[in-house]
Design goal:
With about 270 residues, this protein is an alpha/beta fold. Helices cover about 50% and strands about 10% of the residues. It has ten helices and five strands. The termini are far apart. The relative contact order is 0.11. It comes from Arcobacter arenosus.
């Protein structure tokens, strides 16, 4: 039993080491063969404004950007493969890429139906088995690579330093969010996973806010917020760049409502 378990662990480790190495090759391949058509990264906040508020008149996109492709394949409503089975998912993404590129049928796209109507018809192209594998590994590793290069806009407060936070907020001209949480809080973890970890939400936060996470079981809330805190986690406090309280939002929120909170306090 121990030997089999050890072999299994080494197999998984080898798989992820290989995936990391081939991601770099896949990135080079994408840049050589795809990047001239599929533009560079555009924030989801701007993409949402472009497609849902401006009818594509802001960016005039006729083909998805590389981050739009990665999101559609890995996280969109029509995502490819099972997120819990990485080995099988690579195979399924490979097959999808080969099939779609050989026959770019709009009815078979992974892109959102609302944005597809703006895209021009794609010319068919053939890719080899090796190229399909490298591109699949590139899309598989895209989000992790971006988060490594551009970390989540979350600061975990371990001691109170109001002056340092305000200095950063003033320098960057951003307001402040204090997220009151606790390790034992089920809804805090649920909201992190379902809302705060979403790329769209992280980008909206990073655009306009300094985000401070505080475990209230171990650290006092900054800016004298303990006086306003009713003991419910999660609670979100929105403050000005100088640390003055604007609004308090106790409880967990879904993606749409939380994005609304971010927008209405600007």
């Amino acid at each position: 039993m121990i030997i089999r378990r050890t072999i299994f662990l080494f197999t998984i480790l080898a798989f992820f080491v290989s995936l990391k190495a081939d991601f770099k090759e896949g990135k080079v391949l994408f840049e050589e063969k795809c990047a001239s058509c599929h533009g560079e990264y555009i924030s989801f906040k701007k993409l949402k404004e472009n497609f849902f508020e401006r009818n594509n008149n802001l960016l005039n996109l006729t083909i998805p950007t590389q981050n739009m492709l990665a999101w559609a394949i890995m996280e969109g409503s029509k995502k490819v493969g099972d997120p819990n089975d990485s080995e099988m998912r690579i195979v399924e993404i490979e097959e999808y890429l080969k099939s779609y590129l050989a026959n770019p049928d709009i009815n078979n796209t992974v892109c959102d139906n609302h944005v597809v109507k703006y895209y021009k018809e794609k010319e068919p192209m053939e890719i080899s088995e090796d190229e399909a594998t490298l591109l699949a590994e590139y899309f598989m590793g895209y989000k992790a690579d971006r988060l490594k290069r551009f970390p989540k806009p979350v600061k975990v407060l371990k001691d109170n330093n109001d002056g340092k936070i305000i200095k950063e907020a003033l320098e960057k001209n951003k307001q402040i969010i204090v997220f009151a949480t606790a390790q034992s809080c089920y809804f805090c973890k649920k909201m992190k996973h379902e809302v705060l970890d979403l790329t769209e939400v992280q980008e909206a936060i990073a655009e306009d806010y300094i985000f401070i996470e505080v475990d209230v079981d171990y650290v006092a809330l900054p800016f004298g917020l303990n006086k306003r805190f009713k003991g419910m986690t999660p609670t979100f406090f929105i403050l000005t760049t100088s640390g003055q309280l604007i609004n308090t939002y106790p409880g967990a929120w879904d993606r749409k409502d939380f994005l609304g909170i971010l927008k209405e306090n600007l």
